[in-house]
Amino acid sequence: MKRMKLFDEIYTAERICKTDETVTGHIGSGTVFKFVDVQNLSLFELLDGAEWDAPEDDELEQFKKRQAASEKAILSLMDMSLMGGI
User: Fold this and answer.
1) Can you list the positions of beta strands (E) in the chain?
2) Global pTM?
């Protein structure tokens, strides 16, 4: 089991995965904790010399979909601005 510290709390999981803005802990096929839209990943500290696990495919795909949706929304706002709609 891996241990992760966030402020004064210790979280335990078999796998702890990190993307650009998400930290997730897994035991077996279940998720035991998940932090989304993280602004400062340096607050999360793995203990006992542990290393981050690679994110699960579905987790990575969800991140990519959110990122693509954000980019699409930004481009849409830029288009509206250029057309005088904002």
Assistant:
1) 2-6, 9-13, 15-18, 23-27, 30-35, 44-46
2) 0.66
